[in-house]
Specification:
The complex is a heterodimer of chains A (about 525) and B (about 325). Chain A is an alpha+beta fold and about 525 residues long. In chain A, helix 7 (about 295-305) packs antiparallel against helix 9 (about 345-355) and helix 12 (about 425-435) packs antiparallel against helix 13. In chain A, a hairpin with a 5-residue loop joins strand 4 and strand 5 (about 100-105). Chain A has helices spanning about 1-25, 60-65, 120-130, 185-190, 240-250, 260-270, 295-305, 310-315, 345-355, 375-385, 400-410, 425-435, 460-465, 470-490, and strands at about 35-40, 70-75, 85, 90-95, 100-105, 145-155, 155-160, 205-210, 215-220, 230-235, 255, 275-285, 320-325, 365-370, 395-400, 415-420, 490-505, 510, 525-530. In chain B, about 80% of the residues lie in helices and about 0% in strands. Classes of the chains: A alpha+beta (about 525), B mainly alpha (about 325).
Chain lengths: ~525, ~325
């Protein structure tokens, strides 16, 4: 009797345990499709390179991210510097001198295509390759403080910095210069590595068909576990409508979308999964301080007051875009919104114009603008807004590569700049857009279109001080001060952030929630459910 | 005589192509934009841009770049892509069959539909058939190829499910190639057919008013013999010339058609190269396009004698 009771209890316990486990692992009980192949539709015409230190295109970044890895990693599907996880490095520590970092590497990580085991030599090689001026990578920005990389043993590497860099791990991630490359593969393939990547990630490069597709296959020896998906095909489909039609017909499992309210609503209505992600594009308007009358702070402030962020948000859709006030993206370390917002006020704008001697407004020099859908409509909206205070401007529309070339030639009185901003520290936007050494036309130019720091005193001192400041709180305070000064001086006017959007069939189970990226990230737990 | 004519035409074609290559070279350099910015991104430092420009050879004096380019072109070397570092010739060679297939098949569709309709609308002038044919020609002529492409996709792929949306070829089988060629070829071919219809009709009407046609009818020849043996030969010369000239339009149409149907091809290659300011690849694509047009025109010239024995090559 006792035995029977014991057996009943045991069986019940096993059943409860099994059901609990099934419930705890979402969707685990669901049946998988026979063919585990994912087809993604990307919005670029092709990839130009898959060298992680040069890959910039929308479609290149997600591909690189499933082939290569960094010492640290973002959490799956989310770019957040506050949640970095160990990846190729199991742990790391900072020596008491505050300038020597030791990274303890994961053992047994295999490179694709039989290139052997990942070791400290690969880390040293990758960092030195990135920092080599002959390579000419723009991703070296942020890596200057690294003085030396020493291999202690195959699984330990020491990185010494020139001064205290408390946030060094934030660059050792699976992004831009943080990807680790295979020394043997780069030495063997030479320039060929650009279109034949060898990484440690869950999927390995198989074939690139120019202007058509890239095929990746599962990396069977992947250290986190064998991927469920056997093959990933990324098809390059430039035309938005063709991409959407192919997706609807089932020829594609997921696509990147044009971030438009009507596209998102249409797909949601038809029960597709649509995800909006950020960090994304931040649109900023820069005033050229060398052009009259923009050299007058009252004029710049008047233009800021005459710019209504809500109109841009209404145009793009409230779910797609949100207003931003600071010169630093909200997801950057060091961001503050405690800056002058310049809330929309035509009265204030008109008053300032009158004080500056332009009661009826003025005509700006012609403004060159890119024909891209992310740049042309916003500047046309701006053109209409400023007409209300009598400020007119003639637009000269050119193709995007021409626009970028002309910006470097300093042709514009105002520059509308819209770019993808992955999380970094506030130092990056300050250096790129506001430091005097980055003024366009200089040998060290980057993207300071306003001539801030030359046409008028800028934030160089604050930025330089923050750069070498070891105390993180003092650093944050300096960065906040710099943001406030930029806003006070009305050097730029941040309009909004426009999220990226993508859609997938519900049967594509990513294994995580996609909150970042421009195209779905496919990982070892991604699977296709029976449908 | 014919051989010396061909040699002369080849020499003049080489001169034309060198002139075209020179114009292309300098026009591209006048355009704003910098391949180094495309490679490194718009927030790259000027120092990094300089390194890349030096690697690309874009920092050399323009005349040195020009003579280097022409020198290589004369020995058939189209250069190396500035962006992908792959030989431009190889990239074009890989894409060429796709565009050639599209061009030839659309031309066949255009000729097979356009000439018969053109002849019949001329013969049946001012009948219902003529009106329908003329409306077809007018509508087709007004349609941009890419718009027709989207319409075809919506009807045959989305509504009827007969064709795929993505026209990329996954296997090497001829049947798959032909299957995936249908809609793209139709989208260009139908427009070409309308153009040929209009031209054939007007030429046929003109020829039917000629004395020798009236004489042929007066002699009691059967109408079909008059139309297809006597009249058609004379209609064909302007039609062939127009079809030859239309090659350029087909290549231009292919640029958009390849994008809409997402087919690989020279058009997509060229658009991508322009967007990335890949000067070498743009030059290579345009030289290839001009080479195709020159060759087609040569073939058209030589084919005149097949239809009109009075044509002599000197």
């Amino acid at each position: 009797m006792k035995t029977k009771f014991f057996l009943q209890v045991l069986i019940s316990a096993i059943m409860v345990l099994t059901l609990t486990m099934v419930a705890l692992i979402p969707g685990q009980a669901q049946e998988l499709a026979k063919e585990q192949v994912v087809r993604l539709g990307a919005s670029d015409p092709d990839v130009d390179t898959l060298d992680p230190y040069f890959a910039l295109r929308f479609s290149e970044v997600p591909i690189i991210n499933i082939i290569y890895e960094g010492l640290l990693a973002w959490p799956r599907g989310k770019f957040d510097l506050n949640e970095l996880k160990p990846s190729l490095a199991e742990r790391w520590e900072l020596a008491p001198d505050k300038m020597t970092w030791t990274f303890y590497l994961r053992k047994g990580v295999k490179w694709h295509e039989g290139y052997g085991e990942f070791t400290a030599e690969d880390v040293k090689f990758s960092i030195e390759r990135l920092k080599n001026p002959k390579l000419g990578s723009s991703m070296v920005v942020g890596w200057e403080p690294i003085e030396s990389v020493t291999v202690v043993n195959p699984y330990t590497v020491k990185i010494r910095t020139k001064f205290t860099v408390p946030d060094l791990p934030t660059i050792m991630i699976n992004y831009r210069g943080g990807y680790i490359m295979c020394k043997k593969a780069v030495e063997k393939l030479g320039d060929g590595i650009k279109l034949h990547p060898i990484g440690t990630g869950p999927f390995a490069f198989k074939i690139h068909k120019p202007r058509e597709s890239i095929t990746l296959v599962a990396h069977e020896d992947y250290w986190r576990g064998k991927p469920i998906i056997k093959k990933v095909e990324i098809l390059f489909i430039l035309d938005h409508s063709t991409r959407e039609m192919a997706f609807r017909s089932g020829e594609l499992d997921a696509i990147s979308l044009e971030s438009k309210k009507e596209t998102i609503d249409r797909l949601r209505k038809d029960k597709f999964d649509v995800d909006l992600t950020s960090p994304a594009d931040m649109s900023v308007l820069y005033f050229n301080l060398t052009r009259k009358p923009l050299n007058d702070i009252r004029i710049r402030r008047a233009l800021c007051y005459a710019t209504n962020r809500d109109e841009f948000i209404n145009f793009l859709g409230k779910e797609v875009a949100f207003p931003v006030y600071s010169s630093v993206p909200p997801w950057y370390v060091g961001y503050t919104d405690k800056v002058e917002h310049y809330e929309y006020s035509l009265e204030k704008a008109k008053k300032l114009l009158a004080e500056a001697g332009y009661p009826n407004g003025f005509k700006l020099d012609p403004v060159t603008v890119s024909s891209r859908s992310t740049l042309l409509p916003p500047i046309q909206i701006l053109q209409e807004m400023w007409k209300k205070i009598g400020v007119t401007m003639e637009l000269k529309v050119v193709d995007h590569p021409s626009y970028l070339g002309l910006l470097q030639k300093d042709v514009n009185p105002i520059v509308l700049y819209n770019s993808n901003r992955y999380p970094y520290t506030a130092n990056t936007p300050f250096i790129n857009f506001y430091h005097s050494k980055s003024i366009v036309g200089k040998p060290t130019a980057i993207a300071n279109y306003s001539h801030y720091g030359e046409a008028m005193p800028g934030i160089d001192k604050l930025v330089d001080e923050a750069y070498s400041e070891g105390d993180i709180n003092k650093k944050l305070a300096l960065w906040a001060k710099a943001q406030q000064q930029i806003a006070e001086d009305a050097i730029s006017f941040t309009l909004y952030v426009r999220r990226y959007s993508m859609a997938k069939w519900p049967y594509l189970d990513l294994g995580f929630k996609e909150l970042s990226q421009e195209l779905y990230d496919i990982c070892e737990t991604t699977r296709i459910l029976k449908h | 005589m014919k051989v010396s004519y061909i040699v002369k035409r080849i020499i003049s074609a080489v001169v034309i192509m060198l002139a075209v290559a020179t114009i292309i070279f300098f026009c591209l350099r006048v355009l704003p934009g910098d391949p180094a910015i495309v490679i490194l991104g718009d927030s790259a430092s000027e120092e990094a841009l300089k390194v890349i420009r030096s690697q690309l050879g874009a920092d050399r004096p323009i005349w040195i770049q020009y003579f280097d380019y022409i020198g290589k072109l004369l020995v058939g070397d189209l250069g190396v892509s500035m962006i992908t570092k792959q030989p431009a010739g190889m990239q074009i060679w890989n894409m060429f069959p796709y565009t050639l297939n599209l061009a030839i098949s659309s031309m066949i569709i255009g000729v097979l539909i356009g000439i018969p309709i053109g002849i019949w609308t001329a013969i049946r002038k001012n009948t219902l058939f003529d009106y329908v044919g003329r409306v077809f020609a007018l509508v087709g002529f007004s349609f941009p190829a890419f718009y027709l492409g989207v319409l075809l996709l919506m009807i045959f792929s989305i509504e009827l499910g007969l064709f795929p949306i993505i026209h990329q070829i996954r296997t090497g089988s001829i049947s798959e190639h032909l299957y995936k060629l249908c809609l793209p070829a139709l989208s260009i071919g139908l427009i070409e057919a309308s153009f040929i219809t209009r031209l054939t009709r007007s030429c046929m009407l003109e020829v039917l008013n000629e004395d020798y046609v009236r004489t042929a009818f007066a002699k009691g020849l059967k109408p079909n013999r008059v139309y297809f043996i006597h009249a058609l030969k004379n209609v064909m010369i302007p039609v062939i010339t127009a079809v030859g000239f239309y090659t350029g339009t087909i290549l231009a149409g292919a640029v958009l058609t390849e994008t809409v149907f997402n087919r690989p091809g020279l058009g997509k290659l060229l658009i991508g190269a322009i967007n990335t300011r890949d000067y070498t690849l743009v030059q290579a694509c345009l030289v290839t396009f001009s080479f195709i047009i020159v060759v087609v025109n040569l073939i058209v010239d030589l084919s005149y004698s097949l239809f009109d024995p009075r044509v002599k090559y000197e």
